[in-house]
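User: I've been trying to design a sequence by hand for this structure and keep getting stuck. Would you show me what you'd pick, starting by listing the structure so we're on the same page?

Assistant: Good idea, let's start from the same input. This is the structure you sent:
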C-alpha cells in the first residue's frame, strides 16, 4: 500500500519561511515524478512544483524564485522550501507521486 504523509505546515507571518516534507512509503518503482500542489478555499487545486523522474524540476510562475523542491536520493522523501511567503500562499498543500498517489495535505496559513 502506497502512502504519502505531509508535514511541516502551520501559521507563519508574511515574509517568513516554512519547509514542508512529504514521506512516501510502499512504492518500489524507482523512476517516478513527485510534485507539490495546493488548494486554497473556494479555489481549484493547482500545481506548485514538480520533480521529474530524472531529477529535473518545474515551478509555477507564482512561486518561482521563492520555493525550492528537492527529493532524497532514494526518492522516498520530498521537501518544499518556501521563502518570502505571502498571504496568497495560504492553502492546503498536498504531495503527489507517480501521477496518482496523494497525501492528505498540510495546512499553511500566512498572516499579513
Amino acid at each position: 500500500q502506497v502512502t504519502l504523509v505531509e508535514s511541516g505546515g502551520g501559521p507563519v507571518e508574511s515574509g517568513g519561511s516554512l519547509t514542508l516534507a512529504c514521506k512516501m512509503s510502499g512504492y518500489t518503482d524507482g523512476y517516478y515524478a513527485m510534485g507539490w500542489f495546493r488548494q486554497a478555499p473556494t479555489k481549484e487545486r493547482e500545481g506548485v512544483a514538480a520533480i521529474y523522474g530524472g531529477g529535473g524540476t518545474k515551478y509555477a510562475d507564482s512561486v518561482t524564485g521563492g520555493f525550492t523542491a528537492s527529493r532524497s536520493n532514494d526518492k522516498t522523501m520530498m521537501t518544499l522550501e518556501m521563502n518570502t511567503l505571502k498571504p496568497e500562499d495560504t492553502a492546503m498543500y498536498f504531495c503527489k507521486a507517480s501521477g496518482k498517489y496523494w497525501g492528505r495535505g498540510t495546512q499553511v496559513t500566512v498572516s499579513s
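That's my pick for every position. To get oriented when you compare it with your attempt: The chain has a mean pLDDT of 94. The two ends are 40 Å apart (CA to CA).
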